[in-house]
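Checklist before submission:
- one chain only
- standard amino acids only
- sequence pasted in full

Submission:
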Amino acid sequence: MTALQAHLLALVVLLALTGVLGHRDARFRKHRPHALAWRWFTASAGWHGRPVTNRGLTRPGTKALTPTGYAHRRWYLPRWQHALWRTQWTFVTLLTCAGLLFQSRRTLEYLSVTAVGGAAYGTWRGRAVVHAYSHRKNYVKPLHVRLAGEAGIPVANKPESWLEVAPDLSYARLTWPKGSPLPKPQERQAIEGIAASTLGMKGAKASWQFTGPKLGLRLVPPVPPPKWVFLDSLEWGASRHPDLPDDVILRAIREAGVDDLVLGIGQDGNVVKVSLSNDSPHIVLSIDSGGGKSVTVRCLASQVLFRGGIAALLDNKLVSHPSLRGLPNVAYADDIEKIHDFLVWLDAEITRRGEFVRGHTDLLGNLAGSPGPRLVVFLEEQNLMMNRLRAYWAERLAEDKALPKDMRENLPAVSPAIRGFEAASYAGRELKIHLVFVAQRFTAEAAGGGSKGASVRMNAGIRMLAGYDDDTWKMLVGKQTPMPASSKHAGRIQVFVKGRDGVTAVQVAFFTHEQTRRFAESGTGRVPVKLRHLTEFRPAGIADPVPAGTVTGGGDGSAVIVTPALSPPVRNWMTIQQARESGLIPHTWKNPSGAFGTLKNRAKKAGRSVPEVKAMRGNRAVYDAVELADFLERETVRT
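Returned file contents:
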């Protein structure tokens, strides 16, 4: 630093000190030191001698009297509390300064020890603050902002001064200041509604406390969904949901309408279901890995097939649903080429059904006949599938352009499979074609990209979420609906339906693979002839698959023919190695056969059933895929 710079800096500091000291001197001469000291220690008024809020000696303030309408939150405390705070810190400061002047060594030692203790306490408090930040941001502060005016509490006050919200949202308590007027009945209902919606406590039970000096409101959420919901409680342990009948889900499925899908048990033991007719024709499953995507797919597919519908699984992950393979009413596309062909067929099927509806609807809007059985398409891992479809079509285009001009097919730039997918997303309820988007995060890019992807996403009005974050919640549900804490429990989902208020927590009904197979085999639907090759199951090592069933009639294959007599199901057998390749066994098992043997012996010793060896393929045991999948899933749940 040069001498000139040093002089300039000293001049600036001198001018600043002169201004501050001159301002303080003018204030001292105007108000006198004893008056300022009195106002400071009694907190009776600001330095100018005027009150800052309308508080009293023991009464907290409710209104700022400043020109800007704002005052620090300590000015809303009763005067005695503010005065005590000022007095104690003034004496602490004076004693510290005196100690540094007369007993500097001991004072510094004391301050060092205090600093270490303060740092430790600050670290502990900091961790607690970080942990509670999301809870305060999402629940406590919004509730304070929305109801502070109703309670006569300044927004500048700390929300915790009158709100107590449990971290797990098991209860919430609101305490009004002393002397607050009793709200009218309609005002109480409005307050309850605002508090419940802000905290995500749909159907919360409210209890008011009118006795005593303070008015209070306590909100308690309804009984949460059970930990597990099974069709067969004896197999999985009835103690998992002792308060519910064993056949509650089966009874609900039998009594549900033809367009309804039973999801599971919600709060207070209520059965939760959605309608493909009244709610939305399409569904989004935005569930993270391990959150219960496969269980939810089995729950939905079982009911569709049971009621005579047909299903299509576009399983581009190659992680199979063994209970849905090799069935005459399920088209299973497990590679990108089959997925492409199916979506191209779907585009033509939408046109055929649309023409049928147009030709069989009278002037009053009544439809005579049916365009076909209900078709539900499950798009597994939507994000991955769209990328592979684009790459597949890009390869097809490159191969076509490499041919001589007279041999080219002149393929369109946009994949017809993606066009078929987009057309299906716009298909209405009349066509009975429904899409179930299965993705960890259903972005516009996953739905097709750009504005089209956003439009496709908007067409799915039933949205089921688990393992979500803030961005996913805002994208699929919206900022106006409070976000409940995401559960790590498999099968616990939040159901949001466009047009309804709030979200509903549900424990999805757990269909085992065997139960899914039985439900599917009882259905009478059949896939069209053109898709019959997708009903065959060809496990590795078996050259000639057993046909899934005979489909008669149909002409060009566009019509769906229902055959009352069901053909025998395909032998869905596989080895442990094939089970690992298809995703039934975790890839973390370095020795699948040895780990499976250990798991099997442990279950035998405990008296639980184990999968039976159906045959031997060389030195490898062959098991039924359905029994194997159920066994692995059941033992995983137990651990």
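Reviewer check: The chain has a mean pLDDT of 80.
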